[in-house]
Amino acid sequence: MKLRPFGNTGMSVSEIGLGAWQLANPDWGLNDKSEALRIIQKSLEAGCNFFDTAPGYGGGRSEELLGEGLKSVRKDIILCTKFGHTSEGVTDFGTHAIRLSIESSLQKLQTDYLDIVLMHNPPREMMDGRISSQYEEFEKLKSEGKIREYGVSLDWREEVDLVVDTTNSKALEVFFNALYQEPLPAFQKAYENGVGIIVKVPLDSGWLSGRYRKGHNFDDIRKRWPPEVVARRSELVEQFAKLVPEGTSMAHAALQFVLAQPQVSTVIPGAKSVEQALDNFAAADKQLSPEIVQAMVELWEREIMSDPLPW
Prior knowledge:
alpha/beta, 10 strands
């Protein structure tokens, strides 16, 4: 697996990381801890060195499993976790809660430092370093060696610009994929300011994996979409599929589209199984042509930009 610089932080990360939201997570209909540990081990063997988690994933189980599965290689990998949603299901972005959250994550992850900590989709006003006290606390934790870098997990171009313009954050986790390109124009400024960009939801909650086509019925957390949204997404997926090169899977093309953006440091698809994880990593073996990347940008501009899909 190729490595990319994580901004100007001195860290290098695998082009494809592991998003650990799904590890043995009952919210995804999963509960097999041994399979989760196998996913972690096989990810390491595939060359993955970037692991993304959060206190609330699986009620704390994700952090605990990563702690168990990565403790023997801690110095060789990059751990990213978050702040704002606790393992008990409580949301608290207060500055007073940061240190307690960090200490809890350190314990679960079986480490004495965290490479990256992100505010987990906080209210937009908290992203503004001119009025938010959270960043001062992160700076204290950084000076103490508890964390190496900090930043924000967010969804919109305006939010990217706000964090870059008003804080010393060196990490952003951005919602971005072929069917959601709204933040893309902000990537260059972040890159020029030495910010590492982590791309979340690269397969658009599975739509770009090729598993869900017209008429699919959902029985997991994706059932939040009303029929008209499912129908529209289904049609857009068919248009995307026509752009995928022969011999390339939809999932690989979707991940390769993200990696075609040079400002991106790493992309973090989730995985329910070892096979799914290994297939995700294999996407980094090839690249899309510039012509196909441009066609995917044009699909967004033509069909979605003026009327974005609801998340």
